[in-house]
Specification:
The protein is an alpha/beta fold. 30% of the residues lie in helices and 21% in strands. Helix 11 runs parallel beside helix 12.
């Protein structure tokens, strides 16, 4: 008897990607077969994003498109959009056959069975704990993985719907995270990207007990709580304690920290990262704005000056640091003067990368009802200006990388150069480029050389000399196979969707 087949249509952020990978494993355990051809699927799972308006529209369009193109398939809307609007969408989005939130992914079987019986189930499990489990297929390029350490958020930025969608902050136990990293490293994953809505708040959730000694408190107070001191005898933040434990893992791998809220950045992580070179000098800190009045209206306690001081501290510790951020243009009450302050902030801080987008008015957030809403066209114009400023800064920051030799994690091996059949081309990333969001390095190598051809493979590291830079990407020449490859575990226990 042929097994039923499913196809997953993935949307949204890295946290949603981890959820998608868990859904794949759960369905396979229920004897479903995954297909990468939607036309073959009995079930299409749209793992949606519901963060901002454009993402919602994209996910809804994905459902409607799937219904039109694959009329015989059952369509399940899962993920953040289903979590947030399942009951409304059941009546309005008739193209979907079922709806499943992201609070407890292990309950997906409760939706699949009635869905396949032509019912239209809606299940939005309680937001509790952090979903985790086996992930034998990763939706990333070979050699890299995301590890979720927290779920939800307590920061309550006035524009943000994440607490509405994902709930209050919950953190995984440190030993559980360590075991997952050990497992991934043993299976040949080199780059570990730690993710959460705010890594800085790790261990500070109301019910968190990550280290067996109760809730961890930040030096300047945990969001949503009274100011307190950490119960740890070391007086360290939860993130620093986790980093200390990761440092004790043996093996050759790299760790990247993604998304640390600037208002309570854990400065105690810096000396730990300096001691262990496996922690990449990459910092993702979403400042959102450079005007103090707007920062306050966003329900943040920092200031432009404090944020500048933080960047100076990081660069003092790591002169080569790569810093990514995000900026929001057109927040309610933003005047031309306050926007000029944000532009000045961006120019002065000169972050390597930033995402610049216009404010999205989100249901049930405090900012939704704020007065002095900025016209959409004005917000779009300002966002475009920020993009242009960042583009100029990025070009200059990339020029400073020209001439260096560095290891590149190869993602894709392309066909040979049209101008020179013996010249091979591949795309990879350096340590200062995070997956999906930053630029790449185009690697040139000699295809007539067996040693170079064998070295330049997806998931492997190669030493490359950067020879030129562009707007977002770099170009480099193959130097040699990285000696780290011999120390990286080799295993076929994990598959990578980008290779299939």
């Amino acid at each position: 008897m042929n097994r039923m087949k499913f196809f997953i249509d993935q949307h949204g952020c890295a946290k949603n990607q981890v959820d998608g990978e868990l859904i794949i494993s759960l369905l396979k355990k229920q004897d479903w077969e995954q297909t990468f051809e939607p036309a073959e699927a009995d079930l299409i799972v749209v793992n949606s994003c519901g963060f901002i308006e454009s993402a919602k529209t994209e996910s809804i369009n994905a459902v409607m498109s799937a219904r039109q193109m694959y009329p015989k398939a059952k369509i399940l809307l899962a993920g953040c959009l289903a979590e947030r609007y399942a009951k409304d969408l059941k009546d309005d989005l008739l193209e979907a056959d079922g709806f499943f939130g992201n609070g407890d992914l292990s309950q997906i079987y409760k939706v699949i069975e009635p869905l396949m019986k032509d019912e239209r189930p809606v299940l939005v499990p309680e937001q509790k704990g952090v979903c985790c489990g086996d992930r034998n297929l990763l939706l990333s390029f070979k050699g890299t993985a995301f590890v979720k350490i927290t779920e939800g958020c307590n920061n309550r930025c006035s524009f943000c719907a994440i607490p509405i969608i994902r709930g209050n902050l919950r953190s995984r136990k440190a030993t559980e995270i360590i075991e997952e990293i050990k497992d991934l490293v043993s299976k040949g994953v080199y780059e570990i990207n730690l993710i959460g809505q705010d890594l800085a708040a790790y261990g500070t959730g109301a019910e968190d007990d990550c280290f067996g000694d109760g809730r961890t408190f930040l030096p300047n107070g945990t969001p949503g709580s009274e100011v307190g001191e950490s119960p740890s005898t070391l007086g360290e933040s939860g993130l620093a304690r986790l980093i200390r434990m990761i440092s004790q893992i043996e093996g050759t791998f790299a760790v990247r920290l993604l998304y640390i809220h600037p208002d309570h950045f854990n400065e105690d992580i810096l000396p730990l990262m300096k001691v262990d070179s496996r922690f990449l000098h990459y910092f993702d800190i979403p400042f959102q704005n450079g005007d103090d009045a707007i920062i306050k209206a966003m329900n943040r306690v920092g200031s432009a000056q404090k944020y500048k001081a933080l960047i100076a501290k990081i660069r003092e510790t790591f002169p080569d640091a790569a810093i990514r951020t995000t900026f929001m243009a057109g927040f309610p009450g933003e005047t031309e003067e306050s926007f000029e302050n944000t532009k000045a902030f961006l120019r002065e801080t000169a972050t390597d990368w930033s995402g610049c987008f216009s404010y999205s008015k989100e249901d049930d957030t405090p900012a939704y009802s704020f007065k002095k809403q900025v016209p959409h066209k004005t917000a779009e114009r300002r966002a475009t200006e920020l993009v242009e400023i960042q583009a100029q800064i990025t070009r200059e920051r990339l020029k400073a990388r020209v001439g260096i030799e560095t290891d590149i994690l190869i993602e894709e091996v392309l066909s040979q150069s049209e101008e020179n059949p013996d010249e091979g081309l591949a795309i990879g990333r350096a340590w200062f480029q995070a997956p999906e969001v930053d630029g790449s390095v185009v690697v040139r190598y000699d295809r007539s050389s067996d040693s170079e051809k064998n070295a330049v493979q997806s998931g492997r590291l190669v030493r490359v000399k950067i020879i030129s830079s562009g707007d977002v990407d770099l170009n480099g020449d193959f130097v040699c196979d990285s000696p780290l490859n011999e120390k990286i575990s080799k295993s076929d226990a994990i598959s990578f969707a980008q290779e299939i």
